[in-house]
Amino acid sequence: MAIETSYSDARVRFASLLDEVVLNQEVVIINRRGKEAVAMIAASELSGLVETVHLLRSPKNGQRLLSALEQVQTTNSNSSSLDKLRRDLGR
């Protein structure tokens, strides 16, 4: 659940709010009087969201990814180590 705070409170607690955002992957909503609220999220979280949007932008690619996910979830495949996969592929 997001932490909601006022602009004034966010200024006072800025460093601790930044720590909360990064350490706990928490979202902080800063409400501003008479203006649109602003959300604070970790840069890594934003990067993941941007990547997801990019991958799902194309309906065809989105369907391919969802089909692959479905296949993995319904198949009882054996896990392989990265080294074994490299050997199998001759790398």
From TrEMBL:
NCBIfam families: phd_fam
Job of this protein: Antitoxin component of a type II toxin-antitoxin (TA) system.
Gene3D superfamilies per UniProt: 1.10.1220.170, YefM-like domain (3.40.1620.10)
Species for this entry: Botrimarina colliarenosi
Family: Belongs to the phD/YefM antitoxin family.
Protein name as catalogued: Antitoxin
Pfam families: PhdYeFM_antitox (PF02604)
Region ranges (Disordered): 70-91
Record SUPFAM superfamilies: YefM-like (SSF143120)
InterPro entries named in the record: Antitoxin_Phd/YefM (IPR006442), phD/YefM_antitoxin (IPR051405), YefM-like_sf (IPR036165)
Biased composition (Polar residues): 70-82
